[in-house]
Amino acid sequence: MEALLSLAFDNLSSYDGPKVRKGLRQVEGLLAQICLSSARDASPPSSPTRSSADASSTGGIKSLAELSQDLAFREFFKLQEGFEWNVAMRLVSTLDRLMGRGYSDGQNDLLILGALDLIQGVLLLHPPSKSLFSREQNMNLLLDLLEPVNCPAIQSATLLTLVTALIDTPRNTRTFEALDGLLAITSLFKSRSTTREVKLKLVEFLYFYLMPEVPSDPSKPGARAAAQRSPSKRARGRVGRGRRRLHARDGGEAGAPGPVP
Question: Which residue spans adopt a coiled-coil conformation according to this UniProt entry (predicted)?
Answer without folding.
Answer: none
